[in-house]
Amino acid sequence: MAELPNYQVYAVRYAKRVGMRSEMFFDGGYRDVDPHNAPAPMDYFVWAVVGPDKTWVVDTGFSPVDADKRKREMLRTPAEGLAEVGVDADTVEDVIVTHLHYDHIGGFDFFPNARFHVQDDEMAYATGRWMTEPSIAHAFEAEHIAQMVHRVFDRRVVFHDGDAELAPGISVHWVGGHTKGLQVVRVHTQAGWMVLASDAMHYYENFEDRRPFWIVFDMGDYLGAYDTIAALADDPKLIIPGHDPLVCERFPAAKPGLEGVVHRLDVI
Asked: Is the dihedral of CA 126, 140, 43, 227 positive or negative?
């Protein structure tokens, strides 16, 4: 059996916001020991998975237009962040889309030559009856979904029905929960098998305390995702949340000067 490649994995921080803890948990933060409603910073990331022969990008981030609309602070475009570690978004061939919320798919235009990997369930969800419910649809942008449909007709969308190996050492795994078709990404690295959990866990705290984020489509699937993620990763340190500022504290900058910009995740 051929030896699996070791991928280098980078978290690219491109935007941020500060919310409140009561906004960040399904239980409204009422389980906090501190009765006060404290600020809760949130970072926005895309991820680069760099192999010996090919680079994969996970999620597209959002555009400055989305940042203005949603009142998020744009620090740099995802493409600018990726360029800091030698990844040219114009030449990226494959982007894995964990789910279709605005902050994970709004940066289509940064990847003009890419194919987009998405779960069947997620596409059906984002174009179906659930989008008539404002409490669900608020995290989606109709234009983003329309652009994805256009890419389907352009044969630039690769659909997956559950778990799938994309290449030796990289696979996607349906977990659902946060959205109907959320998928996580498993990557083989020098430190072991890593899971880019995206919004299966916004924060380490979601996973460690089994406290879901407040946007939940299916609570049973959401909680089950924690068990799936734990089984897929070789070490809890190799489970990477989607929005936690602690990522930039727990992992080193990709190189000097990139602190808070790009951090390398396969070094623990």
From this structure: negative
Structure tokens at 232: 């897929």
Percent over 90 (pLDDT), the chain:
88
User: pLDDT, tens digit, for every residue of 122-158?
Assistant: 999 999 999 999 999 999 999 999 999 999 999 999 9
Instruction: Please give the single-letter amino acid code of residue 268.
Output: I
Cα–Cα distance for residue pair 183/160, rounded to 1 Å:
10
Instruction: Count CB atoms within 10 A of the CB of residue 166.
Output: 17
> pTM for this structure?
0.94
- When mean pLDDT is compared across 69-73, 106-110, 151-155, 208-212, the lowest value belongs to 208-212
Q: Identify residue 179 by its one-letter amino acid code.
A: T
Closest Cα partner for 179 from 223, 233, 125? 125
Interacting residues of 35 by C-beta distance below 8 A, sequence separation 6+: none
Cβ atoms of 58 and 82 closer than 8 Å: no
Domains in the chain, CATH or no CATH each? 8-264 (3.60.15.10)
262 burial level (CB within 10 Å; 0-12, 13-18, 19+): buried
